[in-house]
Amino acid sequence: LFARGLATEASSSRMPPYPKLVRNLEQVRRVLGSDRALTLAEKILYAHLDNVEESLLTGTNNGRDIRGKANLKLKPDRVAMQDASAQMALLQFMSCGLPSTAVPASIHCDHMIVGERGADTDLPASIKGNSEVFDFLESAAKRYGIEFWPPGAGIIHQSVLENYAAPGLMMLGTDSHTPNGGGLGAIAIGVGGADAVDALVDAPWELKAPKILGVRLEGKLSGWASPKDIILSLAGKLTVRGGTGSILEYHGPGVETLSCTGMATCCNMGAEVGATTSIFPFSPSMVPYLQSTHRGHVAEAAAKVAAAGPSSLLRADTKAEYDQVITINLSELEPHINGPFTPDFSVPLSRFADTVREKKWPETFGAGLIGSCTNSSYEDMTRAEDLVKQATAAGLKPKADFFITPGSEQIRATLDRDQTLNTFSEAGGIVLANACGPCIGQWNRTDGVPKGEDNAIFTSYNRNFPGRNDGNRRTMNFLASPELVTALAYSGSTTFNPMTDSLTAPDGSEFKFQPPSGFDLPSAGFEEGNPNFLPTAAVPDASSEVIVSPTSDRLALLEPFAPFPEGDLSGLQVLYKVKGQCTTDTISAAGPWLKYKGHLPNISANTLIGAVNAATGETNVAYDEAGKQYGIPELAETWKERGISWLVVAEDNYGEGSAREHAALQPRYLGGRVIVSKSFARIHETNLKKQGVVPLTFTNREDYDLIDACDKVDTVGLYDVLKSGGQGEIQLRVTKQKTGEVFTVPVQHTFSKDQCAFILAGSALNLLAKKAHA
Ligand code: SF4
What is the DSSP string of 638-673? Predict the structure, then answer.
């Protein structure tokens, strides 16, 4: 391991640039007029604009109608990447040829570590199995001056909260739960690798100005209710799509009653309702949290900025208006349990047993898992410990397997020192590595539940899609607070309500849990833990070689894509006409393919393998001009070898689901030049343009019916539109393969001037690399 930097160092890169942000906010107010009240999220976002006037005045009715309309060009302060997504992000960054990243950045090795027997066995095995990837990430970090957190150091979002997140900061993270940093008053947004590269090379990162959904908190939590229950109940109200295109901004008197880590839990799970991010205003609990995580200087600076009151950068203006407001009274909030299979099926604890019986869900369950990036704070763990101590004193042991995942080495070492982990272990709990493990399918379950059999588990994690934890799509994952999961583990029953029901102790007496109590922060401060888990120093070293073996099947350096030809595209062939839904998972499947995330040629062998053939109803079955049958990626590869560029015809919302950039990179790598659909998912449409693939939509939706696989297509007007920065009209000239008939269909585009430049250059990266060397 390289010499590690000090995690405790009062690094200036961890201080948000407050003087600049305050000045920028003043400029925002000058542009918008002093009578325009701003929410907290608007203040922080707009204070990070690259060009305030251009972003706020273009197409927004003189700045009066920004939300949902303006294209914000933002300059984030920092980037964080997890090991799975960092591979492609770094490979793309490397192809720009810069000596170092333009903003501070960090890499966190967490996703590729299994949870099975416990940290001592699982961590060395995972390091061995993934050493090639970890070596690459560490060597790239050393070369470009990125802080590298090695396997075992912790989960990205917990490490970010403990080290980098701060009130007023704006950061991007290549993971959907990056909004966790909103618990410390940061705007933290989850993105794909290509977006992260924008920030890493100092190019403005574009975001459609989000709407602001206010969540007003009143009252105070007590008893069994925890911060997790705020977001579990909110997910039930909003559903998995209710936050799309919005930032959730918490406010109201209840905010000041919450711990900083509890607020992070709420923000973390805002991703489950599709929100762009979530944020809390500067509040009293942030100060001791920053101090205890060695950032007293940040606490002091933030407090000074916030002292200006509601007009300050770190709070919403008194008259700020939200697009919608949901009010939650914390004093009346009941614990909730959400699931199975979706995080928005939310049931209050008092109704859960009846729901289990009505729905015929299993009445027993096999495992309770607490911790993860969502819920492994000192408060979470000491409240769970209190319950374990109560049960142990009565002679009880958990009936379900009980797993504990600390979110970071800092929290693990602190809980170890304070005997919390010992309490869990003596009760039979298994402490897993400080990593994602069971939360992301890296759970080799040893309790003998056969794949494909209905069963239940309870976790304090954030997601519960089918197959997410143990690869068994029939495992019903119910989400609840760590306290509730812990108490339920002692009953092994899904119908147990610890607030009202009793258990029978070994001596025959009735045992009833008392409401849990714990501590927000450790009275003796946080331990640093194993020094080998501290990050490398953020100093670029041009002499350091980035380790990528030419024979590797997991990593491959990227070759730049060819620029757009000097004229329209001609002789394209329709590779596939897709019927129905086509998500990013359909285009680039996950599961075992995750292993090849850093190897574009290898992962391209999964391209569109989930897509349904509109002509035959078959999945992943394509036919060439002679009627010979192929898998879709095989036909694409064959055409690529023959020099044939191709296009895909698709229906609505092509590319929905996630920001997975591989779904755009892979078609481009295999020779795809155009996707023409009835409509696109917005993020994927942008990703396609970034990789130099042209997304077009049918002007008349029924024209979808006119084009079939193997038809030939020429673009008409596309080149002129690209050269003029997005002006003009485009048509497709179609030659039917079977009859030779020729006709044209009109199509629409959404190219901005910048995006035209990406496509002409061959990809956004090509353009960035050119600018970097100009
Ligand atoms: Fe994602 Fe789970 Fe890891 Fe958190 S613990 S970063 S949700 S995989």
Answer: HHHHTT--EEEEE-TTBTBS---THHHHHHHHTTEE
Residue whose entry in the numeric block shows the structure tokens 């995942």: 405
C-alpha count within 13 angstroms, C-beta hemisphere, residue 659: 22
DSSP secondary-structure letter at 67?
T
Look at residue 12 in the predicted model and tell me its pLDDT: 64
The span from the CA of 600 to the CA of 523, in Å, is 49
CA distance 162 to 290: 8
Closest residue by Cα to atom 2, ligand 1, is 439
Average pLDDT, the chain: 94
Predicted complex: ipTM over 0.95: yes
Under a CB-based contact definition with an 8 Å cutoff, are residues 402 and 431 in contact? no
Local structure of residue 450 (DSSP, 8 states): P
pLDDT (tens digit per residue) in 600-618: 999 999 999 999 999 999 9
Residue 345 in contact with residue 338, Cβ under 8 Å?
yes
Contact 397, 427 (CB under 8 A): yes
369 within ligand 1 shell (Cβ under 6 A) = no
Q: Are 24 and 49 in contact (CB under 8 A)?
A: yes
Quote the ligand 1 centre to 129 CA distance (angstroms).
20
Euclidean distance between the first and final Cα of the chain, in Å? 36
Query: In whole angstroms, what is the distance from residue 203 CA to residue 76 CA?
Result: 10
How many Cα atoms occupy the beta-carbon half-sphere of 183 within 13 Å?
A: 34
SS3 430: strand
- Which residues are marked as active site? 110-111, 175, 463, 658, 660
Residue 326 has pLDDT above 50, yes or no: yes
**Which H or E run contains 214?**
strand 211-218
Residue 534 neighbours by CB under 8 Å, 6+ apart = 4, 5, 6, 7, 153, 528
CB atoms within 10 A of CB 193: 25
Verify whether ligand 1 is closer than 6 Å to residue 271 (CB atom). no
> What tokens appear for 675 in the block?
């996707």
Dist CA 718 CA 337 (whole Å): 52
* pLDDT, tens digit, 9 for 90 and up, residues 327-368: 999 999 999 999 999 999 999 999 999 999 999 999 999 999
Give pLDDT tens digits for 443-476: 888 888 998 899 999 999 999 988 889 888 899 9
